[in-house]
């Protein structure tokens, strides 16, 4: 059984993330969508909210589990027996960042390989930070996130504008 982890802040989970995890769920036996608890990013949603939004978004994928984690991703991979880390790539800037991360993770854990899936064309531009900005300016985000995420974003934006 091949276990893969798909780590990120998922603040919030987008249709781009869902595209990657859905495609990966057809390749790997089990996927752990790992929501990073703490980040140097300015997070919009709490860890609990991000986990709940992600769980609802992937409920239709029986081989995908959502959990939060802290610390090094390679330590989580060892803990759950994952041999693969999944990452999504949008464009050149993503490649450079992901390449550096892959090399560091390889140094920390020789047993963990990274598999990068190219984002589908309609999600090449999509980032959680851009999405949050558009949502808080009352832009239409309905085709960029699941319905429950769009509702949660609109609610969060009320207190920030």
List keywords for this structure.
161 residues, alpha/beta, Rossmann fold, five-stranded parallel sheet, 6 helices, 5 strands, globular
The description of the largest β-sheet is: 5 strands, parallel
- Helix count from the secondary structure assignment: 6
Total domain count: 1
- How far apart the termini lie comes to 47 Å
Principal-axes geometry comes out as: globular
Task: Assign the CATH architecture.
Answer: 3-Layer(aba) Sandwich
Helix content: 40-55%
**If you average the pLDDT, what whole number results?**
90
In CATH's first tier, which class applies? Alpha Beta
Beta-strand level of the residues, as a percent range? Answer: 15-25%
Category by helix and strand content: alpha/beta
Number of strands: 5
Query: Regions with pLDDT < 50 over 5+ consecutive residues?
Result: none
Strands of the biggest beta sheet: in what spatial order? 3-2-1-4-5
Output the CATH topology: Rossmann fold
Radius of gyration: 15 Å
CATH superfamily: HUPs
Short précis:
By secondary structure, the chain is of the alpha/beta class. Helix content is 42%, strand content 19%. The chain has one domain (3-158): 3-Layer(aba) Sandwich (Rossmann fold).
What do you see in this structure?
- The protein has six helices and five strands; from the N terminus they run βαβαβαβαβαα.
- By secondary structure, it is α/β, with parallel strands linked by helices.
- It has a single domain, classed as 3-Layer(aba) Sandwich (Rossmann fold).
- It has a five-stranded parallel sheet, with helices on both faces.
- It is globular and about 45 Å long.
- It starts with a strand and ends with a helix.
